[in-house]
Write a structure and sequence with these properties.
- By secondary structure, the chain is of the alpha+beta class.
- It is about 60% helix and about 15% strand.
- It is built from 14 helices and ten strands.
- The strands form three sheets. Strands 6-5-4-3-7 form a five-stranded antiparallel β-sheet.
């Protein structure tokens, strides 16, 4: 056993050998039970208000902050009362004297981490690990207050192995995780701040805003990892071989993922597709909801969201109905019988177009006689609309229905196939 571990063990033995040790343990156990009881009691009395209840933000933050320090403060109060009782009984209270600053530091650290999380707004990851971070920081502070920190650090540094020319200890790994995590949280906060500033800017287009947000986040996170590694004492030049191995892995196993990621940046910077566009790719028609690192989210008229890989948008034909101009021309083919007046039918079709609020008056709707078909005269109505994001089927149905009503009032018929059955010889079975 190393000298560092022996010093830590000796410190623990000194505490156990104190007079009145078990009385102090009993006081701490009672204080712990009282703190848990009060916490459960407050949870039942104040179950927590939901966001929709419109609670003032500052009041809610204060209430949640007090909930986080209630446990250590209640335990501290009970410990102080127990310490006074032991002193009155002329019993040793050294262990309780050690516990007092530890509980105070726990309360301070928990409220500090909570306020930092609210200030950083770093997302659900920091929220999920709030208790872990508080406990880790408190453990370090506790070891420092007890005077055990140098011995524990030396003991952790003694647990090491050699990898190539580098010495890797457990202490180095812990420092690496902590420093990278801290720089990662700072990078997320900076990325969120940049995103909010870009969102408030009215001089930047939506696609540029998304591109700058994603690029800044990717750059900051990569920088956070490199700075964290350097701060932890890792030689970055040693990562060159590892980077080459990662490059080979990307070339083989992660080729499609990398292709989608790069294609996403191409779409963002060339502004060919942006949130709010109406696109058709293959059999999919819908509205672009989001541009992600690997895919875009397209919502169709049924409310179904489809995730389309970015690579597909770069390598295949995509119809962007709102790329440079939202005005879209629609063609509505109609047939009439040879016995009807085509000019009258064409005028009815134009009147139906002008009656629709979604059909543009400029460019003016047109009606053309396209062909003399086998079943009737083929006409085609050509109209322009300005809002393809509202769908194409609705305006088609509206205009076609108006044409049907006009034809019915004017006595114009739409031909349809009619078949005559001729029976040659034989008799029809009446059964």
């Amino acid at each position: 056993m190393s000298d560092a571990w022996l010093s830590v063990f000796a410190g623990g033995q000194r505490i156990v050998s104190l007079s009145g040790f078990w009385w102090q343990i009993a006081v701490l156990v009672l204080a712990l039970g009282l703190a848990l009881f009060v916490r459960n009691l407050l949870k039942e009395a104040n179950p927590g208000m939901k966001e929709t209840e419109g609670v003032n933000r500052l009041r809610k933050i204060s209430r949640k902050g007090l909930n986080r320090i209630q446990f250590p403060l209640t335990m501290l109060l009970a410990t102080l009362i127990g310490k006074a009782a032991l002193v009155h009984m002329h019993l040793d209270a050294t262990l309780l004297a050690f516990a007092t600053p530890l509980l105070l530091s726990l309360a301070g650290i928990r409220i500090a981490v909570y306020l930092l999380r609210k200030g950083f707004s770093a997302g659900p990851l920091l929220k999920a690990f709030e208790n872990v971070i508080s406990t880790a920081v408190w453990a370090v502070v506790s070891l420092h207050l007890l005077g055990w920190l140098p011995g524990v650090l030396a003991a952790l540094d003694g647990l090491a192995f050699h990898l190539g020319g580098n010495r890797i200890s457990l202490l180095l790994v812990i420092k690496l995780v902590i420093t990278v995590a801290l720089f990662w949280i700072l990078a997320l906060w900076l990325a969120r701040l940049i995103e909010q500033r870009l969102h408030d800017s009215v001089h930047i287009s939506e696609s540029s805003r998304v591109a700058l947000t994603k690029f800044s986040k990717f750059f900051l996170l990569a920088l956070a990892i490199l700075v964290g590694l350097d701060a932890a004492g890792i030689d970055l030049t040693a990562l060159a071989v590892f980077g080459g191995a990662v490059g080979v892995g990307i070339g083989f196993g992660l080729q499609r993922i990398t292709s989608n990621f790069i294609s996403g940046f191409i779409l963002l910077f060339d502004k060919s597709i942006k949130p709010g566009d109406v696109i058709t790719i293959g059999s999919k028609f819908g509205w672009v909801q989001e541009l992600r690192a690997r895919y875009i989210v397209v919502r169709d008229r049924d409310g179904v969201e489809t995730l389309i890989p970015n690579e597909n948008l770069v390598t295949t034909d995509v119809i962007n109905w709102s790329y440079s101009d939202k005005a879209v021309r629609l063609k509505l083919p109609v047939q009439i019988s040879y016995g009807d007046d085509p000019e009258k039918a064409m005028q009815i079709m134009l009147d139906a177009a002008f009656a629709s609020s979604r059909v543009l008056k400029e460019p003016v709707p047109l009606c053309r006689l396209m062909n003399f078909g086998d079943s009737g005269i083929e006409l085609e109505l050509r109209i322009w609309i300005q809002d393809p994001e509202n769908g194409l089927g609705g305006v088609r149905s509206e205009v076609n229905l108006a044409i049907w009503r006009g034809f019915k009032e004017a006595g114009i018929t739409i031909p349809f196939p009619q078949r005559d059955i001729h029976i040659k010889g034989g008799e029809i079975d009446q059964k």
